[in-house]
């Protein structure tokens, strides 16, 4: 094997221009692959955190039977005040939990003396809700603790109603009996929630206001925030175990079950990276196969000599495959270094991308290159280059010795 | 007891060249004894074909080639490769050295493939380079050598596995007369040191005929004349 290694290595050096060009193609294609993969990883983690911290929490808890209602806005199946208190107490006993946000859904009409418009949103505790900081505040402030009528509305809704910070609006919602209930909303903030449709209807107010409106002292759901996303499932399992002893029956949903858009985006990105993977792998394989084919063709006489002096076809094949492996190793190493270089540059020079649909914060372009991915993709490339070297290697073993010796 | 030497028994070799057929060897019967045999004949007479069959690089269309009583045609591809590796040495007109390897690796290549240790290989190559008059050239590359020196290296490589059969196809054709003479002298000297070896030299060079003057076989249009 030592001789095959030596021959493969020296064959690579025999035509350095062609060898380095092939390694360059492998380097660029591998770097492209790692870059896309790293970008997707960054989006996956960054986007997930954004959705968790601003929208869904790590998981949400509902009264038993909520799932079968198939209506996130339903208000007739609520936790009682005692249940909310017991659950909150239990959740805060876990070290991983940083906030518990009881919420009531709101859906009805919001209006002033000029007009009334359809609106929806939720009512929550101002202190905890302000931790989530949903949307980008354009004017005023977040919900004001101590003011039950405090409200934040979408910029589109405010515009349509010609409303400004400090204005008073009326909200009317249907009650369980089919009648209407009304309350005031004092605009403390106007926020941009991203999609136009959301901006034209969204409203947040205090839990106290929502409870008065719905004649309840409870909540429809509890949104739970943790310190670390990685603890989510463990906390849910822990909670599931202790709930029966508390006499509480609940349903839980992890954030991925709520963030359908996230799942779709990640699925799309994953599909895209798979396509990129296939294309770059084919390009790399073709480059290597082409280089080695030419190399074998140019060494036709040499292979004939080797066969004549008793070198077996397997040994010839091993030499050619090793040549492919060297190209793959060299190109992969360069590709990894190139990717790490780009990552280092992006860490120093910030580049921002427009916010993806459904979110309102621009994403800083960065790539999250993970060590195991470097290894996996590097090895994959080595495997592909060996695979690409197979046809020329096979041709090398099938040569006619006499013709080869005659050149 | 098996017959010593190389025996061609009713050997015919035909090639296809497109739609036409070429009769390269026609019913050749001959027994080559250990020692040197010169194959004479003009270009296209079948000298090289005979050498290829002798070295198991090709199979006869009809008949048998036997070495020490064993038919080469009956060997599998793997066995033929092994046979060439251990029993045959080739010296080509164009030297056919491996340009990317130094002389040490060029000569030792077949030994490496036999699993011999690096130390053994070094010792053997040094010994051979001394025999062919190129002592101290181990680290040089073929491109740094003259034609005569390259042919000496090729001879050293052909002898590295102590072959029983040494095949030299026009070994002096690409050399000037003085260098050619020195190569022939070297071959004869080496043959004296390896008395059991059978050396087949194909040439139409008068110099070779004069120098090797031993057993000579004349080929004409694929037929053996003497």
Low-confidence stretches of chain A are none
* Major sheet summary line of chain A: 6 strands, mixed, barrel
Q: What's the total count of β strands of chain A?
A: 12
Helical content of chain B stands at 25-40%
- The structural class of chain A is alpha+beta
Q: What is the helix fraction of residues of chain A, given as a range?
A: 55-70%
**Straight-line N-to-C gap of chain B:** 27 Å
Radius of gyration of chain B: 17 Å
- CATH level-four homologous superfamily name of chain B: P-loop containing nucleotide triphosphate hydrolases
Give the number of helices of chain B: 7
What's the mean pLDDT score of chain B?
89
Structural class of chain B, please?
A: alpha/beta
How many strands, which pairing sense, and closed or not: the largest β-sheet of chain B?
A: 6 strands, mixed
Terminal Cα span of chain A: 27 Å
The chain pair with the largest interface is: A-B, 25 and 29 residues
Written description of the protein model:
The complex is a heterodimer of chains A (407) and B (226). Chain A has 407 residues and is of the alpha+beta class. Chain A folds into two domains: 2-51 and 262-406, no CATH class; 65-248, no CATH class. In chain A, 57% of the residues lie in helices and 20% in strands. Chain A is built from 15 helices and twelve strands. In chain A, the strands form two sheets. In chain A, strands 2-3-8-5-7-6 form a six-stranded mixed beta barrel. Chain A starts with a helix and ends with a helix. The relative contact order of chain A is 0.18. Chain B has 226 residues and is of the alpha/beta class. Chain B has a single domain (33-59, 78-224), classed as P-loop containing nucleotide triphosphate hydrolases (Rossmann fold). Chain B has helices spanning 47-54, 77-87, 103-113, 118-131, 147-159, 177-193, 206-212; strands at residues 6-17, 20-32, 35-40, 62-67, 70-71, 88-91, 165-169, 198-202, 215-220, 223-224. In chain B, the strands form two sheets. A six-stranded mixed sheet of chain B has the order 6-7-8-3-9-10, with helices on both faces. In chain B, strands 2-1-4-5 form a four-stranded antiparallel sheet. In chain B, a hairpin with a 2-residue loop joins strand 4 and strand 5. In chain B, helix 3 (103-113) crosses helix 4 (118-131), helix 3 (103-113) packs parallel to helix 5 and helix 4 crosses helix 5 (147-159). In chain B, 46% of the residues are buried. The mean pLDDT of chain B is 89. The A-B interface holds A 2-3, 6-7, 10-11, 13-14, 301-302, 304-313, 315, 401-402, 405, 407 and B 52, 55, 57-58, 77-78, 81-86, 88, 90, 92, 94, 96, 98-101, 105, 109-110, 112-113, 157-158, 161.
């Amino acid at each position: 094997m030592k001789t095959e290694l030596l021959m493969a290595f020296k064959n690579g050096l025999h035509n350095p221009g062609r060898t380095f060009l092939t390694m360059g193609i492998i380097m660029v294609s591998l770097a492209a692959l790692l870059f896309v993969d790293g970008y997707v990883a960054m989006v996956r983690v960054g986007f997930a955190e954004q959705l968790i911290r601003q929208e869904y929490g790590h998981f949400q808890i509902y009264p038993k039977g909520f799932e079968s209602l198939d209506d996130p806005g339903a208000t007739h199946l609520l936790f009682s005040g005692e249940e909310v208190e017991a659950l909150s107490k239990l959740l805060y006993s876990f070290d991983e939990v940083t906030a518990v946000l009881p919420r009531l859904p709101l859906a009805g009409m919001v209006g002033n003396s000029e007009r009334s418009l359809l609106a929806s949103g939720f009512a929550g505790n101002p202190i905890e809700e302000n931790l989530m900081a949903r949307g980008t505040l354009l004017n005023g402030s977040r919900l004001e603790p101590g003011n039950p009528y405090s409200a934040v509305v979408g910029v589109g809704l405010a515009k349509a109603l010609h409303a400004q910070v400090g204005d008073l609006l009326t909200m009317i919602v249907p009650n369980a009996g089919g009648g209407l209930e009304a309350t005031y909303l004092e605009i403390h903030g106007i926020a941009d929630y991203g999609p136009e449709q959301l901006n034209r209807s969204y409203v947040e107010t205090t839990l106290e206001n929502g409870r008065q409106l719905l004649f309840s002292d409870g909540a429809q759901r509890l949104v739970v925030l943790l310190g670390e996303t990685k603890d989510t499932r463990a906390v849910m399992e822990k909670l599931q175990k202790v709930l029966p002893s508390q006499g509480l029956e609940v349903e839980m949903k992890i954030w991925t079950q709520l963030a359908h858009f996230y799942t779709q985006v990640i699925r799309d990105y994953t599909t895209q990276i798979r396509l990129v993977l296939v294309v770059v792998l084919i390009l790399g394989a073709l480059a290597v196969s082409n280089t080695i084919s030419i190399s074998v063709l140019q060494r036709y006489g040499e292979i004939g000599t080797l066969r004549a002096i008793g070198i077996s076809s397997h040994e010839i094949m091993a030499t050619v495959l090793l040549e492919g492996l060297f190209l793959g190793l060299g190109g992969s190493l360069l590709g990894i270094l190139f990717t790490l270089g780009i990552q280092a540059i992006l860490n120093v020079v910030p580049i921002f991308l427009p916010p993806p649909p459904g979110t309102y914060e621009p994403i800083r372009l960065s790539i999250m290159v993970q060590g195991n991915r470097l290894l996996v993709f590097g090895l994959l490339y080595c495997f592909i280059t060996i695979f690409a070297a197979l046809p020329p290697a096979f041709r090398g073993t099938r040569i006619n010795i006499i013709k080869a010796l005659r050149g | 007891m098996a017959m010593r030497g190389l025996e061609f028994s009713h050997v015919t070799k035909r090639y296809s060249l497109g739609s036409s057929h070429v009769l390269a060897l026609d019913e050749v019967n001959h027994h080559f004894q250990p020692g040197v045999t010169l194959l004479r004949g003009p270009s296209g007479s079948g000298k090289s074909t005979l050498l290829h069959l002798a070295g198991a690089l090709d199979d006869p269309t009809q008949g048998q080639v036997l070495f020490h009583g064993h038919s080469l045609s009956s060997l599998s591809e793997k066995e033929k490769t092994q046979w060439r590796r251990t029993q045959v040495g080739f010296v080509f007109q164009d030297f056919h050295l491996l340009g990317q390897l130094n002389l040490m690796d060029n000569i030792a290549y077949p030994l490496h493939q036999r699993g011999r240790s690096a130390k053994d290989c070094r010792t053997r190559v040094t010994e051979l380079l001394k025999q062919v008059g190129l002592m101290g050239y181990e680290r040089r590359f073929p491109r740094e050598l003259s034609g005569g020196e390259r042919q000496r290296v090729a001879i050293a490589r052909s002898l590295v596995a102590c072959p029983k059969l040494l095949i030299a196809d026009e070994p002096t054709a690409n050399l000037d007369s003085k260098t050619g003479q020195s190569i022939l002298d070297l071959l004869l000297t080496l043959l004296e040191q390896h008395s059991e070896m059978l050396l087949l030299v194909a040439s139409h060079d008068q110099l070779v005929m004069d120098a090797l003057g031993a057993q000579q076989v004349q080929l004409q249009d694929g037929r053996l004349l003497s």
